[in-house]
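With this grant's support, we have settled on a layout for protein records. A representative record follows, to show the layout.
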Amino acid sequence: MSLKLMYITNNPQVAKIAADAGVDRLFVDMEVLGKAERQGGMNTVQSHHDPDDIAVLRDAVGPGVEIMARTDPMNEGLADQIEASIRNGADVIMLPMWKTADDLRCLVDMVAGRALTMPLLETPDAVDHLDEALTVPGIDQLHIGLNDLHLGYHRRFMFELLADGTVERLCRRIGDAGIPYGFGGVGRPGSGTLRAECILGEHVRLGSSFVILSRSFCNTSLVTDYGEMEQIFRGGVKEIRRVERDCAAWKAEQFEENRQNVIESVKQIIGA
């Protein structure tokens, strides 16, 4: 089964371009609470979207494309934020920075079956409580957030968690619970500090179902011409699908060779 490709935007024209190119899930990012403090000084995306953006995207792309809302972390206003997201047409609710199974029980209660739930596993506390969290009824999917998780573990580079086996161990635990999962983000094949092809090979090896298209896939702060965006999206998605097909035909030795390439590449990156 192909990876579901997810892309963050609240721009309806960009959303239509992405959806037409084969992006499966658009991603409205409303998370602001605590994010600047956690990621201060890092070159990370802080989107400041709101629930009204969901309705705008829904009108732009129609019913055939999923729209996910990443909310703020647990706070007194979360129920209202989830209500507004679902009312505006969100198909999936992503909760960031959760720490305990009780957080997920609250999430499930707030969503009440009206959308899918996809908690974002990105804190060491959540990892410590994962076994109990995986027993919470109503958790539909999980995504491993490498950016905040590597900060939580005081690592220098987010893909250290892929190289050292942390991601594999988490994937196996989630998969054993029968919950679909994904991890991190990826750029266009042929690009990336850690090559996108290597990352995609690990997604296939680990049975991942989801990946976020990173800002570098199509940085709309730099690329402002919609015709150029369309070319980037169509070409980039086509290349990702090609790499997926190639990896699906690999033998065990090729997956192991790619895993070792990831380990050696990460060592070089953090040592540079």
Observations:
- The mean pLDDT is 94.
- The first helix runs from residue 12 to 21.
